[in-house]
Write a structure and sequence with these properties.
The protein is 37% helix and 20% strand. The protein is built from 23 helices and 22 strands. The radius of gyration is 28 Å and the shape is flat.
Length: 660
């Protein structure tokens, strides 16, 4: 159990705050919407650390109308006693970079946020910040401007702060201790947006609620009167059930937990896994409360243990007669065979003074000790489980054998196609209008819906840098299609050849011929369907290309508004209405509004001006940071089950967006 006495001596100072504003990307990853939300999560994770330690049961988050956001918890409260530096520990934690209770094992045994690192970075990147701490009957207050205190930490009363703390956080008045934080992001740093996204935050909070079993997390949005509340008692087992809700589960959940010591570092490991009837795997990993989107040592340890245990089990349970008869002797299992259809969650917990993240944004864990710890715990736990549950073991092995046989059949089919000259060694498809530039970094490929739009795009493009590949009609739904079927489909075969990097086992992303692959479809239902089919193909079968940030969605205009011999393009109905309001009554009466039913209705000059010109176009980069959510969306929209798809479409029809 962590030290109950959380005091000033637990706060350690490493360096000052100034570098944060000079290079904010080093501390929060970026200054776009992603970086903005990272500020809030830093503060939330500090509260979650109190919950992990058993000191907090409630966390409240509120998005305010004035652009600020506030967080409170009923934990122990940031220390306010005098620090060795001569000022209150609260001021040190909020204004000094790398000052926090997470550098000392005495205060926290496992943490995700770095109480002080995250808070001080948030403070430095906010125009204003306010912190109120309760210790029994005493309240302490300090406010800041761009990371600088307005006054020393001062003692105050409940009556004095009653109107300062929003009603959403009045639990602070019934708890014996806790911390309230409110901050206003600096729009000179976050120039793209300072508008917090409710859905984004809701998903991040729900994810964390799954991890910290037994904690109540409450989210309020006073801007539009929305709220969400989360509480889960089963931890990562509840998370796995959520991730598999649209998939057919082949067996019960396998839960493995254990503690080990590697290089004198105590490490806790929790793993839950389950095979489904899908063709792709979906592994989610966490280090303390942080979702390590880019994986790292803990996932490597899990995969190594899984491979070792399953291969050993297959060898040990193949009878002598089967060996003599050569049954399955030609099967050579690959890592993909062993994890096809596998959904899992890998969670490690360890001292924050030992955990090594790749950067402050904490998307990848690097500790070699973690790899060894996960390997040892999973190997032992999975071996014991398979021995004790032979029926489940046989289901898993059958799934692995099926995956291997299907892979070999697809490989044979692919090689047959290759021998016919349909893929490798084939000249570029005739429909492709390639660009003159041969440097991939300076080249881009537009995938265009239909020959008509393809013709306009070919005429209007920058021939030096832009290639055009027209597609005719709907393409194959590849959500549940194997490689041989994909290669047989003419449109996808042309796309694979044009991209130049191969597919399946032969895929080499270093050979990708274009740094940007842009999906350009009509701004209607059919266009959205084709774009979704293409995204499914890229996500399921060329995932490294998506992860590398090479896939984009073009944004063609919906309308052209002509008035006073002028023309303006708008990209949505809302934008149209807003623009019309800027016109005079006379201009509005005479305005001609053209609704584009398809890209083919635009002449080459219009298509270039609105959708293809790098100086004026709007591109949406497709990213899959939230891979679990992306997997769920594709399984829902493109899978075989009708009911979940219908419910999804009915729910999101009014705010559809193809961004992942």
């Amino acid at each position: 159990m962590a030290n109950q006495n959380y005091t000033a001596k637990d706060i350690t100072v490493l360096e000052g705050l100034e570098p944060v504003r000079k290079r904010p990307g080093m501390y929060i990853g970026s200054t776009d919407e992603k970086g903005l939300h990272h500020l809030l999560i830093e503060i939330v994770d500090n509260s979650l650390d109190e919950a992990i330690g058993g000191y907090a049961k409630n966390i409240y988050v509120c998005l305010h109308k004035d652009g600020s956001v506030s967080v409170s918890d009923d934990g122990r409260g940031v220390p306010t006693d005098k620090h060795v530096s001569g000022v209150s520990a609260l001021e040190v934690a909020m204004t000094k970079l790398h000052a926090g209770g997470k550098f000392s094992d005495s205060a926290y045994k496992a943490s995700g946020g770095l109480h002080g690192v995250g808070a001080s970075v948030v403070n430095a990147l906010s125009t204003n910040m306010q912190v109120i701490v309760r210790h029994e009957e005493n309240f302490f207050l300090q406010t800041y401007k761009v990371g600088t205190p307005d006054f020393p930490v001062k003692k105050t009363t409940q009556k004095e702060v009653q109107n300062t703390i929003p009603e959403y956080h009045h639990n602070l008045f019934t708890a014996n201790s806790g911390t309230f934080t409110r901050f206003w992001p600096d729009n000179s740093i976050f120039k793209i947006t300072t508008d917090f996204n409710f859905s984004n935050i809701r998903e991040k909070l729900q994810e964390r609620a799954y991890l910290v079993a037994g904690v109540y997390i409450h989210l309020f949005d006073e801007r539009n009167d929305k709220q969400a509340n989360f509480y889960f008692e089963s931890g990562i087992r509840s998370l796995l059930a959520h991730n598999n809700k649209h998939k057919k589960e082949l067996h019960e959940q396998i839960y493995i937990a254990g503690n080990t010591v590697e290089s004198d570092i105590p490490i806790g490991v929790e793993v839950v896994m389950q095979y489904t009837d899908t063709f792709s795997d979906n592994l989610e990993s966490f280090a303390n409360t942080i979702n390590t989107y880019d994986g790292g040592a803990h996932l490597t340890g899990f995969r190594t243990a899984l491979s070792k245990v399953l291969k050993n089990y297959i060898t040990a349970n193949t009878s002598e007669s089967e060996k003599k008869n050569g049954k399955n002797k030609d099967l050579d299992f690959t890592p993909d065979d062993l994890k096809e259809g596998l959904t899992g969650v890998v969670w490690v917990k360890m001292s924050s003074s030992e955990i090594q993240f790749e950067s402050q944004t904490k998307t990848k864990i690097n500790n070699a000790e973690v790899q060894s710890a996960v390997y040892q715990v999973v190997k032992k736990g999975l071996e014991e489980y398979l021995e004790e549950h032979p029926q489940t073991a046989q289901i898993i092995i059958a799934k692995v054998f099926l995956a291997a046989k299907a892979r070999m059949a697809a490989k044979a089919a692919r090689e047959a196609v290759v021998r016919k000259g349909a893929l490798e060694g084939m000249t570029l498809p005739g429909k492709l209008a390639d660009c003159q530039e041969k440097d991939p970094q300076r080249s881009e490929l537009f995938i265009v819906e239909g020959d008509s739009a393809g013709g306009s795009a070919k005429q209007g493009r920058d021939r030096k840098h832009q290639a055009i590949l027209p597609l005719r009609g709907k393409i194959l739904n590849t959500e549940r299609a194997r490689l041989d079927k994909i290669i047989e489909f003419e449109g996808l075969k042309d796309l694979i050849v044009a991209m130049g990097m191969g597919i399946g086992e032969t895929m080499d992303t270093n050979k990708l011929r274009y740094s940007r692959v842009i999906i350009m479809t009509d701004a209607d239902v059919d266009g959205a369907h084709i774009a979704t089919l293409l995204l499914t193909f890229f996500y399921r079968h060329t995932k490294p290309v998506v992860e590398g940030g090479h896939i984009y969605l073009a944004t063609p205009p919906l309308y052209k508004i002509s008035y006073d011999k002028k023309g303006t393009y708008v990209y949505s109905d809302d934008e149209k209405e807003k623009f019309l309001k800027t016109l005079t009554d006379q201009q509005r009466q005479k305005a001609y509004i053209q609704r584009y039913k398809g890209l083919g209705e635009m002449n080459p000059e219009q298509l270039w001006e609105t959708t293809m010109n790098p100086e004026t176009r709007i591109l949406k980069q497709v990213s899959i940071q939230d891979a679990v959510r992306a997997d769920e969306v594709f399984a829902t929209l493109m899978g075989s089950e009708v009911a979940p798809r219908k419910k999804f479409i009915q729910t999101h029809a009014t705010n559809a967006n193809l961004d992942i």
